[in-house]
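TASK: fixed-backbone design
INPUT:
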């Protein structure tokens, strides 16, 4: 009997040891499970955070692209307006040059006429001066003759 009792005690003690080992394994597995669960939650959190950052960056890039497009369109519109303004100014300059050319031609024609008239007038003045000198000489001669006759 004592052997049976001893065996049962051994079995009980083995069961107790098995229970302790089993508990330790269960606790170790629970610890591993909790660590794995915490790591999984951390990874899920980081995944969500990364996805939200990606979405924010995508939105930011879309907004930046919109800004760049708007700026480019404004520059193109300004370039078109500036080109039209330069074209308009060029047309005005061409019209002014055409008017100046026409006025210059008129002035040139009138100047040629005036120059010709001046030449004719200068010749007429020269003739009148010659006539005046000739008349003075004749008058002086007549006066001398009178003086000579009167003396």
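OUTPUT:
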């Amino acid at each position: 009997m004592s052997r049976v009792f001893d065996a049962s005690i051994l079995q009980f003690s083995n069961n107790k040891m098995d229970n302790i080992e089993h508990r330790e394994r269960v606790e170790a597995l629970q610890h591993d499970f909790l660590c794995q669960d915490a790591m999984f939650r951390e990874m899920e959190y980081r995944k969500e955070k990364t996805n939200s950052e990606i979405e924010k960056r995508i939105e930011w890039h879309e907004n930046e692209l919109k800004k760049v497009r708007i700026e480019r369109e404004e520059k193109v519109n300004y370039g078109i307006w500036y080109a039209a303004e330069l074209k308009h100014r060029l047309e005005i300059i061409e019209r002014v040059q055409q008017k100046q050319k026409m006025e210059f031609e008129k002035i040139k024609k009138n100047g040629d006429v005036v120059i010709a008239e001046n030449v004719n007038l200068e010749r007429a003045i020269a003739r009148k001066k010659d006539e005046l000198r000739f008349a003075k000489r004749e008058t002086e001669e007549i006066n001398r003759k009178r003086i000579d006759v009167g003396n």
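COMMENT: Residues 2-150 form the longest helix (149 residues).
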